[in-house]
Structure formats: C-alpha cells, structure tokens
Amino acid sequence: MDKKTVKDIDVAGKRVLVRVDFNVPQDDDRNITDDRRIKAALPTINHLIDQGAKLILVSHLGRPKGTVNPKYAMDPVAKRLSELLGKPVTKLNDCIGPEVKAAVDAMKPGDVILLENVRFYPEEEKNDPEFARKLAEPVEVYVNDAFGTAHRAHASTEGVAHYLPPVAGFLMQKELDYLGKALEDPEKPFVAVLGGVKVSDKIQVIDNLLEKVDTLIIGGAMAFTFLKAQGYSVGNCMVDEPGVELAKDALAKANVKGVKLLLPSDEKCVQLDSEVEVPKGIPDDIEVSICASAAIPDGARCFDIGPASVKEFSEILKSAKTVVWNGPMGVFEKKAFAEGTLGIAKAMAESGATTIVGGGDSAAAVEKLGFADKVSHVSTGGGASLEFLEGIELPGVAALMDK
Description:
With 403 residues, the chain is of the alpha/beta class. It has helices spanning 36-40, 42-50, 75-85, 98-105, 122-125, 129-136, 170-184, 199-210, 222-229, 243-257, 307-318, 339-350, 361-368, 382-389, 395-398, and strands spanning 15-19, 54-58, 90-91, 112-114, 141-144, 166-168, 190-194, 215-218, 260-262, 266-271, 289-292, 300-305, 322-326, 354-357, 377-378. It is 34% helix and 15% strand.
C-alpha cells in the first residue's frame, strides 16, 4: 500500500486541488459542533502552504442530493478553517466554472481557497467524467486526504485523478499505514474486536479477518446472532435472522483456521418492551440484571456485555501486540450500558499494542469515553475503514500513484 504522498512531489508555486473530508456536524444555527475532521486535515494543508503551493480545497457537507441547499453551504467550515490556520480562507460560491478559474488564476503561493459543496452537483456522486475534468481544469496537482470518502468512486475522489497527477495527503497516508500494516503484516498476537448490530453487514470483514487474526472477539448485538447459531435462546434480543447461517459458517471457518472466536459469557439484561426505541427510549434509571449469555431469560433484552466478559476480553487484549476494533459492545450512549465498551477501550489503552479503532460508532465511543488519545490510531472513515477491513480495494486509494 505504498502510495506517493505530498512529500514526493514539488508543489512550489503550483495550483493544488486537495480533496478533504470537511463533512462536519452542525447545530440548527449552523455552528460546527465537532471540528475534528477539519483539524485532521491541517498537517497536509500546513505542509502545502509551507511549500508555497496555492491550495484549492474541495469537500462535501451533508447530503444535499445534487441540489443547491444553503443549509449545506461551506461558509461555516471556511470560517472555522480560517481560525485554525490563522490566515484568510476564501470561500467561493461554486466548485467549477469561470468564477473558480478567475479566483485560482489570481492566487499567490500560500493562498487558500475553499470551493462550494461538491455535492451540490448530481454529477459528483455519479462520477461524471466531464464534471471531474471541470474540477481538474484550473489546477495542476491532485491530493486526496479524505480517507472517509475513499470507498466512494465519486468525481472528486476518483474521477479527478484521471486528469491530474494524484498523490495522498498525510491523513490518507496515516490511515493506509495503520490499517494496511494491521492486515498485511501485523505483529502477533493479532486480536480483532467486532461489535455492532448485523452479521450480514460485517460477514465480509469477519471472513477476511479470520484469515489473519489469532483471536476474534464478537460483542454488541451481533453476538446474539452467533448465540442463536449455536442453538441458545436469546430472549427478546435483536437477532439478524439472515445472519444466523452466516454466523454458523463463520464459527466453522474459525474452527478450521484455528482462530479463537469468542462470544460474551454474560450480558446486561433488562425487561423492556420490544417496541421501545433504542437508545432514546431507554430510561436512565432502568433496572439492570446480569445473565449468562447461554441462559438469557424469556422476554429479556440485553444492551451490553457483562462484567465477566469484560474481564475475559480485557485479559486477551492486554496480551495482544496488534488490536483492531470496529463496533461498540453495547448501547454506550446510556451510562447503564457503557461499561463493556469502556472496558474494551481501557484494555486497549493499557495493552501496549498497536491499537486501531475503526471509524463510525467505535470512534465516537472512544472519543466520548476519553480514550481517543490513548490508542495508536482512530480512523476517520467509518464505511471506508470497514471496506478496507473487508479486503476491498478502495476506489479513492486505487486511483493514487504508487511510489
């Protein structure tokens, strides 16, 4: 996974198009509530400024569905980026066309422009070649620093690379280094922890990891599908019915490969109506009991792994040399069901291993629980990191030049 990066090319005085992932959450007044994605792009942006490049940044924001929607305009992002850089960021009202060309032609080395939301055009998500050509037209070099969108073959992530020399930014390089090494040459013992809901959503990840790991730990709601596949009663717990046969196959494959596939031995259970929306409908003062995973009471619903499981999983993690984690152990948003996910995060932080947290809910969990700076790497891409773990080549990565 050795791709050329911004360090491998001369950018002095050149017009450089940088695909960033500035898809940040905002409140109803359009105040940015979490600027981590903007901060994650700063090393690449600052390097290019220092090298005397003329920076043209492009990103999507939200899901405007190919129409111009002021709610998803990039203005708040430009304002926050300007504050973080300590210099002006010119925000344009389009991402292609005469206005963009004129503004780019007038740039001086070190100047920064942020283009308007690229998804205001339906051609972006269709990876329209003509739209990609128009994006590329005013610039000389392309840098992809948006790992979070690298699994999408869109005009700004893949199409534009056909018209310009394409290289990786530092954030993209970091993602590929950590995830690539974990899958291609991990230090052993290699332990993977998978949580989340549907086995059918993660069966490719499970299949790919069973070829590489020493131990695979399954938690979260996925565990109930595996327990059902083993013939246990799972009360009213969520089961991915299409995933039951897949779980049986995975258990058989683990056995053949000599991989330890571990399920929780105990769960935190509650009596809760099956219609109640999770996590919103769970009362904060709900009465919780611990039950054995092999004997979940009729009518019970379980929302976290129990203390015995936390202890067992933690001991395995503390003896690992490489750990990849994707998916929480329970409904960590509720205090009563956060201990399983917290225990995994804590054990990873104390393990001394190379620890990689896949994006999405796992990233949100380690951030909320205060462990984001205590693991080796928190991926910025939920869907992208998942597809990477499946062994799928990501279009946005495949388009970059090899070293």
